[in-house]
Structures are given as C-alpha cells and as structure tokens.
Amino acid sequence: MATGSPQTSTVMSAADIDRALTRIAHELVEAQRGVDELILLGIPSRGVPLAQALSERLSRIDPAFDPDSCLGSLDITMYRDDLGSRAARVPEPTRVPARGVDDAVVVLVDDVLYSGRTVRAALDALSDLGRPRAVRLAVLVDRGHRELPIRADHVGKNLPTSRSERVTVRLSAVDGVAEAEQSVVIDRAAAAEEDS
Ligand SMILES: O=P(O)(O)OC[C@H]1O[C@H](OP(=O)(O)OP(=O)(O)O)[C@H](O)[C@@H]1O
Ligand SMILES: O=c1cc[nH]c(=O)[nH]1
Question: Motif PRPP-binding at which residues (predicted)?
Fold first, then answer.
C-alpha cells in the first residue's frame, strides 16, 4: 500500500520490511541447502543493520548459523569509482568474521540497488580480503537503472522507478526511527530538487 504526500509515498512499511527479510532468509537457506560456509557482510550504512536482521532470522531457521562468527560488514568507501566527485566521507569499519572469507559463500547485503556501482566497489573490496567460493547479493529494494552488469540474487521488493526519483530506506539502527516506523519511501521530486 502506498501512502504519503503527493511527492512522497511509503512503499514498504515496517511489516513489509520484516516479511521481506524473513523471506530472503528462507531463500538463502534454500539456495544453500543449509547455512554451511555462509557469511553475511553488510555494506554501510544501512546494509549493516539489514545483515544483522537477516542473521537473526537465519539463526532462528537454522541454529547452526552463528551470527557471532558469520556476520560482518564491508566498507566500500575507498573502492568507489566516483571518489573525486562525491562529498568526502569517513570510511566505516570493515569487520570480517575470524574464519575469513576464503571458500565461504559471502552474501553482500545492502538496502538499495540502483546503478550497481556500490556493489561493484564491494566486489573489489571483497577480493582484497580473500577468495570466496561464491558471492551472492541480497538487497531490500531493487529500483532498476543499472549501469553495470550486476543483479541481485535476493530482493525484498522490485520497485520500478524513474531516474528522477529517490528511494530512502529508514531503519531504526541508522535513522533513529522506532522499529514500527521503519519504512521505504519514494520521493518523486528528489532528483529535481537536487538538480536545481
Ligand atoms: O547502486 P548504487 O547506484 O551504487 O546505489 C545504491 C547505494 O546508494 C546508497 O548508498 P549511499 O552511497 O547513498 O550511502 P548510504 O549507504 O549511507 O545511504 C544505498 O545505500 C546503496 O548502497
Ligand atoms: O534512490 C536511491 C539511489 C541510490 N541509493 C539510494 O539509497 N536510493
């Protein structure tokens, strides 16, 4: 259900996000036929709490999944291809589980997939850490408009958008909203304002 002002609509509620994450956790277990060698790496900023939320669901589905040894984060700041044209940003921590990424099935987790350039940077950052057996991509929202040959394996919501729109994910851990107020919002005038 979409609600909000004429320019801004809520396209996922907290309950929608919750259901999508639960489905993705089940998809991961099914794709893997279990959780062996599975590692989740969240891409800051919002990929980190999303990876945490997925890890909690995975450990409930299969207690062999231990978030303490299978959950981490992967900062991509220094691997971006637009470092010179974006506002400077302080890198966030990269936390790799003690076992490392070699031979693991690494699931990169992010909130929005758009051009694909963040994921391209994440693949470069990951290759500096080791050689996973496989890499998968889980995102809460795929809004289209890829500029690189990258696709997600697990998607919470496919959201057709125009380039002039902006998709914003609001999570309690990053945005300070209550858990019940977590949401995905589309702003139809965002890019027009940024361009003016
Ligand atoms: O596919 P792309 O075109 O790379 O866009 C997707 C990325 O854009 C946002 O990150 P942003 O760089 O805005 O920083 P944030 O994680 O702090 O929101 C979002 O969190 C994704 O990581
Ligand atoms: O709409 C967009 C595009 C890139 N990244 C986002 O978080 N939202």
Answer: 106-118
Domain-located, residue 51: yes
For atom 4 of ligand 2, the residue with the nearest CA is 114
In a domain, 150, yes or no: yes
Task: Give pLDDT, residue 195.
Answer: 47
Q: Is the pLDDT of residue 119 over 60?
A: yes
Distance CA 54, CA 26 (A): 10
Residue 194 has pLDDT above 90, yes or no: no
Structural domains counted in the chain? 1
Cβ 32 under 6 angstroms from ligand 1: no
Return the ∠ at Cα 53 (arms to 51 and 57), rounded to 5°: 110
| Residue nearest atom 17 in ligand 1 by C-alpha distance | 45
- Alpha carbon of residue 89 to chain centroid: 19
